[in-house]
Amino acid sequence: MQSLLAIARLTFKAAFRFRLVPLLGLFLIGGVAVLPAVIIHDGSARGLTQIVLTYTLGLITAVLGLATLWLACGTLARDIEECQIQMVAVKPVPRWKIWAGKWLGIMFVNLLLLGLSTAIVYGQLLWRAKSLSENQRIILQNEVFIARGSLRPPVPDYESEVQRRAQERLKNERVAAMDRAEVVRIIRDQVRAELSAVPPGWMRRWDIDMSHLKEQVRDQFMFLRIKFLTPIPEDTKTYIGLWRIGPAGSPRQMVQELSQAANTFHEIPLNPNLLDEQGKLTIEYANGSDSVLYFPLEEGIEVLYREGGFALNYVRGVTIIFCWLALLAAVGLFAASFLAFPVAAFFSLALLLVSFSTGTMTQVIEQGTIRAVDHETGQVGKANWFDEVTVLFFKGMYWTVQQVRDFSPIESLSLGRSITWGTLARAVAQVVLLMGGLFAVFGIWIFERRELAGEQGKA
Q: Contact 36/56 with Cβ under 8 angstroms?
């Protein structure tokens, strides 16, 4: 342990001898301190949160992410290229300790910079909140400075209906000639649209079981978060609808007629004590417009309730960002274990860019081919070995990326969403232990077998 901490301490000191790291550190501290003061918000609680939380935490994540990759690649690759690593490798110190010590040292740097910058953001948020009007401060306390849990109506199991319809359609010779995966995808979209549709003059009802939270939410205000879509792309109209929330026929039932825009989220404050005796919240919507409205199954209806305070929620969110940095440090060290510094940095950045290309990967996986589907016929050429290999590779990449991208602490904090201890535990398990551990195992394995003596001859 002593040797591990000694290598970590030396790595921590060496980090600030890289010109880029101190410069990025100064840029980071200056950015989070100056950015909220330079950008003028609209005077609302949401506008303040957008600037102080979303922009600054996004800046922190981007700057520290790049600095971590650069430092991780440089601290190991340059030590190998400049033959400094041999001074440590010849000592009775296992190579895995050298690798792990450098990772630990990088994380000490991240802990320092992340802790300092996020503390400034928190202070900025509290200070800027004083400039809001009294009404907006109430909104800030009830909707942002809070950790809100959420519940959604259960999504019905529609796959059996999809398969039944697919079997019926495939009896048609013309449909049978089409790509089966494309046929199933089209039918699945149709079934989902039917389940989420509220035609003009119709009413739809959702029931959310909150029996396990009945005592927790008693006498508390909650929020109904809704979103609906229309068949018109980029629709800017508003649509009238009647909301009935609470036990039917009860004087406690809340009734509101609202005109709301499509393709955006709306939050409706709910009166306390709208649950029935069984702890169920009933939500009814009557479409008073002349257009069919679609409430997406996964995000159309959601109830938000108070689960905790903001400070602890903020700490959990920052800890998830720290988990991301831990993974990036492992990626950089993995690349530096077998590549020269410039190539290792390029390789690490390329992996980072791939993580933002999930849309392309999803399309290839759904279509079962990397080639374009003929949208007129819905057909694609017969799959070959290249398609199969590519789809399999993309499935693996997509699964890997999703293990990391499932967590969005910045969005959750800006929306006042609760980041639970369970979410944090999953982030540590999936991002640090699983993904970071995989890169660490392969990186150490490669580093253990690398011939370091040959690097001296190259130098």
A: yes
The predicted pLDDT at position 259 comes to 94
Q: Please state the domain extents for the chain.
A: 2-146+309-458, 151-308
Q: What value does the mean pLDDT take over residues 228-239?
A: 86
Please tell me the predicted confidence (pLDDT) of residue 295: 96
| Residue bearing tokens 């190259």 | 458
The CA-based angle 355-360-363, given to 5 degrees, is 130
CATH assignment, 151-308: 2.60.120
- As a whole number of angstroms, the distance between CA 281 and CA 264 comes to 23
Q: Which two tokens stand for residue 147?
A: 């950790």
DSSP string, 361-414: HHHHHHHTSSSPPBTTTTB-PPP-HHHHHHHHHHHHHHHHHHHHHT--HHHHHH
pLDDT of residue 341: 85
How far is it, in rounded angstroms, from Cα 188 to Cα 163?
A: 9
pTM of the model: 0.80
The confidence band for 128, taking pLDDT boundaries of 50, 70 and 90, is: confident
- Calculated CA dihedral for residues 240, 243, 249, 251, nearest 10 degrees: -110
Q: In what order do the strands lie in the sheet with 222-226?
A: 147-151, 301-308, 222-226, 266-270
Torsion angles phi and psi, residue 238, rounded to 5: -110, 155
What's the pLDDT score for residue 459? 45
Rounded Cα distance, 85 and 14, in Å: 13
